[in-house]
Design brief:
Elements (H helix, E strand, L loop, with lengths): L2 E2 L36 H18 L28 H4 L9 E4 L11 H9 L1 H24 L6 H16 L12 E11 L2 E3 L16 E10 L2 E10 L5 H17 L6 H12 L3 E4 L2 E4 L1 E2 L3 E5 L10 E3 L14 E9 L6 E2 L5 E4 L11 H13 L5 E2 H6 L6 H9 L3 E4 L2 E2 L6 E10 L3 E4 L7
Antiparallel strand pairs: 1-10, 2-19, 3-5, 4-17, 5-6, 7-8, 9-12, 10-11, 10-12, 12-18, 13-17, 14-15, 14-16, 18-19
Helix pairs in contact: 4-5, 6-7, 8-10
Cofactor: Fe(2+); Co(2+); Zn(2+); Mn(2+)
GO molecular function: initiator methionyl aminopeptidase activity; metal ion binding; metalloaminopeptidase activity
Keywords: Aminopeptidase, Cytoplasm, Hydrolase, Metal-binding, Protease
């Protein structure tokens, strides 16, 4: 989920020359089991005949009941399609796959084999298990989504395909009070089209249909016990967009490559921008330079909070903030054929409770009631209107707007470049572990 750079911070950015200034059965043998007397099914018919003959003398025929074999439940060994098997069943004992581990280099090279650092890593076993489970769920759901998403589907259908898969694989459908806080969606599934770069998901009644000419950013999060994996990719169905997607994918990978302990985020932004803006794309006979969207950033992730305290710009800046051991970062980059600058636009769908807000005396009863629902079901995890509809809330917009106006809930409007332009996004979550950098959400797809 994208973080928006503060407006004041833009003044300190050193954007490369040429950039425009405006711009996540059977028992096996098929036979009947033996009865208590040790005889199998074949002896039952003889026993029945003898019993009938004996009872015939008294005129009372009795039938002997046969026992039905008990079917043993098979333990799933592979994911279903659509994905509905809990990932914890596929990986008993919590032995979830690791992400891509990259050894540190230069002054941090010693960390890979240092005993003290290895001990610190071992102490984080629960932390790593939660993250790896969330990452595996993200991989399985997104790879299924990439296979089945096609032009002609509604955005609502696509979002629910992804969200239903995540909930099924975590084993938490989020319908019971507090269930969504245990595991499930880390934030709503974003499906931003064309010039819209981020934070768009359909509200109830949305009839928008994915078209073949569209470029769609698919951005969703998965959490387990508040450990959020944030990863995104872009889908396009026309080859004319290939260079745009390649530019952004390579820029994200460049940012991941530069990330590590003591890396300065402003310098990472410079590498991202240089990689991104080395590309140009020809669309319908016109050539466009690919620009980094300079007021969007990557970000740290905290427990139950998708946007932490550190940002990773995607253009060069003077920000000397360092990455540190134990940090969790979402490295995400956005490229555009437009101005390379986004503004709020369109109907709001994303919201999140502000973790830092002080007590506010609410006078509107609907706002008080809704705040209680948000606290019990989402806490500080982002949610959307469809999630409120799903748990049975009605006529909540007045109360929701009141919470936003009082600063208790933050609204995240869609972020858009100029109309007619195209934007793309790729993103991974990385763990800055004591011994290695782990790209936790890495998969065969990207």
């Amino acid at each position: 989920m994208a973080a928006q750079a503060p407006t004041e911070a833009l003044k300190g950015l050193k954007v490369a020359e040429g950039a425009q200034a405006k711009g996540a059965q059977a028992n096996g043998n098929g036979t009947q089991p033996a009865d208590d007397d040790g005889h199998g099914e074949d002896s039952d018919s003889d026993a029945d005949d003898n019993a009938a003959a004996a009872d015939g003398a008294t005129g009372a025929a009795k039938k002997k009941k046969k026992r039905k074999p008990r079917k043993k439940k098979k333990t799933p060994t592979a994911q279903s399609e659509p994905p509905r098997v809990k990932v914890s069943q596929l990986f008993p004992g919590g032995s979830y796959p690791k992400g891509e581990e990259v050894e540190y280099k230069d002054d941090n090279r010693y960390r890979t084999t240092d005993e003290e650092k290895r001990h610190l890593d071992n102490m984080n076993s629960e932390f790593l298990t939660d993250y790896r489970e969330a990452a595996e769920i993200h991989r399985q759901v997104r790879q299924y989504a990439q296979r089945v998403i096609k032009p002609g589907q509604t955005l609502t259908e696509i979002a629910e395909t992804i969200e239903d898969g995540v909930r099924a694989l975590t084993g938490h459908d989020g319908l019971a009070e507090g269930d969504a806080l245990k595991a499930g969606m880390g934030f709503p599934c974003g499906l931003s089209l064309n010039h819209c770069a981020a934070h768009y998901t359909p509200n109830a009644g949305n009839k928008m249909v994915l078209q073949r000419e569209d470029v769609m950013k698919v951005d969703f999060g998965v959490h387990v016990n508040g450990r959020i994996v944030d990863s995104a990719f872009t889908m396009a169905f026309e080859s004319k967009y290939d260079k745009l997607l390649q530019a952004v994918r390579e820029a994200t990978n460049a940012g991941i490559r530069e990330a590590g302990i003591d890396a300065r985020v402003g310098e990472i932004g410079g590498v991202i921008q240089e990689t991104m803006e080395s590309f140009e794309v020809e669309i319908d006979g016109e050539t466009y330079p690919v620009k980094s969207i300079r007021n969007l950033t990557g970000h740290t992730i905290l427990p139950y909070s998708i946007h932490g305290t550190k940002a990773v710009p995607i253009v060069k800046s003077n920000d000397q903030t360092k990455m540190e051991e134990g940090d969790v970062f979402a490295i995400e980059t956005f490229g555009s054929t437009g101005n390379g600058y986004v503004r709020d636009d369109m109907e709001v769908s994303h919201y999140a409770k502000n973790a830092d807000v002080q007590h506010v005396d609410l006078r509107l009863s609907s706002a008080k009631s809704l705040l209680g629902v948000i606290n019990k079901n989402f806490g500080t995890l982002p949610f959307c209107r469809r999630y409120l509809d799903r748990i049975g809330q009605e006529k909540y917009l007045l109360g929701l707007n009141n919470l936003v106006n009082n600063g208790i809930v933050e609204a995240y409007p869609p972020l858009c470049d100029k109309k007619g332009s195209y934007t793309a996004q790729f993103e991974h979550t990385i763990l800055i572990r004591p011994t290695v950098k782990e790209i936790i959400s890495r998969g065969d797809d990207f």
